[in-house]
Every structure is written in structure tokens, then in C-alpha cells.
Amino acid sequence: MDGEGWRFGPVRVAARPHPPGQRGEPAVRPLLAQWLGRDEVPLVRDAHGRPRLLAPFQDCDASWSHSGGLLLLACARGATVGVDLERLRPRPRALELARRFFAPGEAGRLAMLPPAQRERAFVRLWCAKEALLKAHGRGLAFGLHRLELACADDDPAAPLRLLACDPALGAPADWRLHEWTPQPDYVAVLAWRPAGG
Q: What range(s) does the 4'-phosphopantetheinyl transferase domain occupy (predicted)?
């Protein structure tokens, strides 16, 4: 991380402290304005609630997420982006939630993990799914089961990759995922693909 944040492929990401329970949009507007060199940001929500930048920045995309006391903002030109952030905490119902909402293969792989690894693996999957669905523009309402992720060689320490997804999301190979720890006890996932992909 440099003084301003991170760069992953075409995507710029920044982390900022954020008061729990407050909306993220008021906090990201000033940073977006700074990045775009404007006093105000032409940001609106589409029919599904996804943020969209208007002219002259319609070739830019932005996404943000907050959890605990941290906020992430991702912005790219020429790419569609989604970011999700979760603070690690006990999730005793992780397997139950995975069986109910995730693809069957994901729930099965989580069930095979030792309990000590299961909660972090669940959060990684959740973040990746939410980042992908934010980028797609429909959010969680589209359905967490409509995309399936796995770690390479079923190694829970390996990076996640998109195995399959609903055709509305395009081809799995079009998407890029980047997982990282922006601060201790946090998991973040950034999803992006070329705009128009």
C-alpha cells in the first residue's frame, strides 16, 4: 500500500477509517472527487441501486464496502469493478448459511474443512461473491448460488477462482479476482473485468 492505497490491475483502491453503522457513500464522494479532479462527483444509482458515474466519467466505475471501522473504495477507468470487505469474527452458522445460499459444491468443500479453517474460508467466499455481484450490478438479490468459486487444487490457502457463473455475468474467464488483507482481521476481495465484457 502506498500513501493513497493500492493498485490492482486497472483498479485503484483506498482504505479509510469509517464509523460503524454509517452509510459509505457520503464518505467516498470526497475521495472520488479528488481522484477525478472535480469539486463534485456526478454519481447516481441505477434501478438496482448500483452506483454509476455520469458524463464526463461514464468510462469510470466505482464500488465501495465498509465493515467494522474500515471503508474501501475501488475506482477504475475502462473496467467494471466490485469490492467487498468483511471483518473477521466468529460465524458459528457459516456452514448452515453456505448450505442455504451458496452453490452445492462450495458448501460441500466448506463442510470438509476443519472448523478452524471453515469460518475464514466462508468469509473469503462471501466477499468474492459479493464483489462479483456488485460488479455485475445486481448485488446479492441476483443469488449467491448463481456463481461458484473454488481454491486451486482445493487448497484453502490458494487464491479463489471463478469456476462457473450464470450466463448473465459473462464468461468466468473474463473476471479477475484479487484477495488481500487491508488491515489485520479483515478480508477484502476486488472483482473486475474490462468494461463491456
A: 81-159
107 Cβ contact partners less than 8 Å away, ≥ 6 residues apart: 95, 98, 99
Q: How far from chain centre, in Å, is Cα 13?
A: 11
Burial classification of residue 3, based on how many CB atoms lie within 10 Å of its CB (0-12 exposed, 13-18 middle, 19 or more buried)? exposed
Phi, psi of 150 (to 5 degrees): -155, 160
d(CA 64, CA 85): 9
Other CB atoms within 10 A of residue 8 CB: 18
Please state the domain extents for the chain: 6-84, 88-174
pTM: 0.93
Burial of 113 from C-beta contacts in 10 A (0-12 / 13-18 / 19+): middle
Buried b (16+ CB within 10 A) or exposed e, 135-172: bbbbeeebebebbbbbbeeeebeeebebeebeeebeee
User: Rg (Cα) of the chain, in Å, rounded?
Assistant: 16
Q: H-type helices in the chain, by residue range?
A: 25-36, 94-101, 104-112, 115-136
